[in-house]
Specification:
The complex is a heterodimer.
Chain A lengths: L9 H25 L4 H16 L2 E5 L2 E4 L3 H8 L1 H19 L7 H26 L3 H29 L5 H33 L10
Antiparallel strand pairs in A: 1-2
Helix pairs in contact in A: 1-4, 1-5, 2-4, 3-4, 3-5, 3-6, 4-5, 5-6, 6-7
Chain B lengths: L4 H22 L9 H10 L28 H24 L7
The chains are: A mainly alpha, B mainly alpha.
Chain lengths: 211, 104
């Protein structure tokens, strides 16, 4: 879902760059107050994991593939602001080192995947955990939140493309939503698999103070 | 979680080894199909493929491939470089932003 250069018009990528900069600034302030020494290795390893897992494009049928996003996973483990920070780092490295996602579209990509994905995933998961208060809640919450975050990110991406005049809104929104309804299942499965692995080997990591 | 230096180093070594193992495991199975956004842009606009647009900046390893090196594990190496770069930057940011004792 990484938007390349040329897909967004100037007013759109400048606006998205501004919004994302504001969010990243707040994330830095929050992190500045809350990151403790024991957060640091976990932040680093989770960021590396998300980067690696994003390499894996899985087929979803119809000549299309999808890949893991990871914002929800990080938001569940470390909180939404940590998700914004980690996704910003991952997306920036992907853009500058691997040409995945355009430099002009970086703000939009951070907004769609990091901010919308992270926050929406975090709150969906929190709501479900309140309703289902046992181990099942962790998996139901993780899967649903991850699925929702992908669909929301895709819709945001589509709206930006539509408003840029690249493609008519009426066409691109249902098309992006439709494909990502399927890709979201993959996101949900990877999120749940990672959570259940952590629950087995390091259950304490699910109770780290959120940022 | 007890914070001892040994625990942290073990966690990092175990975590990164697991991730690097994962890279070698999954890269051969990566789907070469266009992803959701690429597919939609091809279908709805007909011409929009990533390559049709000039990127604003030339990255050293476009498409997760080390350009000058032609060898079997090219993508794997690119992936591992990425893992260390992302890990390094995140840990560096974490250290810069961490709560300092005098601030408590």
């Amino acid at each position: 879902m990484h938007i390349p250069d040329g897909f967004l018009d100037t007013k759109m990528w400048v606006a998205m760059g501004g919004i994302s900069s504001a969010f990243v600034t707040v994330a830095v302030r929050k992190a500045n107050k809350q990151i403790s020494e024991k957060h640091i290795p976990l932040l680093g390893v989770m960021a590396a994991f998300v980067f690696a897992a994003q390499l894996f494009n899985f087929p979803v049928g119809g000549g299309t593939s999808g890949h893991f996003m990871g914002a929800t996973l990080i938001a569940i483990l470390l909180g939404p602001w940590a998700a914004v920070l980690i996704m910003t780092t991952v997306l920036t490295v992907q853009c500058l080192v691997f040409q995945d996602g355009g430099l002009t579209a970086l703000g939009a990509n951070i907004f769609n995947m990091g901010i919308m994905g992270g926050f929406f995933g975090y709150y969906v998961n929190t709501a479900i955990q309140l309703l289902v208060r046992n181990k099942k809640g962790i998996f139901i919450g993780g899967f649903t939140a991850a699925w929702c975050s992908i669909v929301l990110s895709a819709v945001c991406c589509a709206i930006e493309l539509g408003m840029s005049g690249t493609v008519p809104l009426k066409i691109v929104v249902p098309a992006m939503a439709g494909i990502h309804v399927v890709i979201g299942i993959g996101e949900g499965l990877i999120t749940v698999a990672t959570l259940s692995l952590l629950l087995r080997v390091r259950p304490d990591l699910l109770h780290v103070q959120k940022i | 979680m007890k914070v001892s230096k040994n625990n942290i180093i073990l966690f990092i070594i175990f975590g990164l080894s697991f991730i690097i193992g994962l890279i070698f495991l999954i890269i051969p199975f990566i789907s070469e199909m266009p992803d959701g956004l690429e597919k939609v842009s091809e279908d709805t606009m007909g011409f929009l493929k990533k390559d049709d647009f000039m990127p604003a900046l030339k990255a050293p390893m476009p498409d997760y491939t080390i350009p000058t090196v032609k060898q079997r594990f090219n993508k794997q190496y690119a992936g591992i470089i990425g893992v260390f770069v992302v890990f390094g930057i995140t840990v560096f940011i974490g250290y810069l932003l961490r709560k300092r004792r005098k601030n408590l």
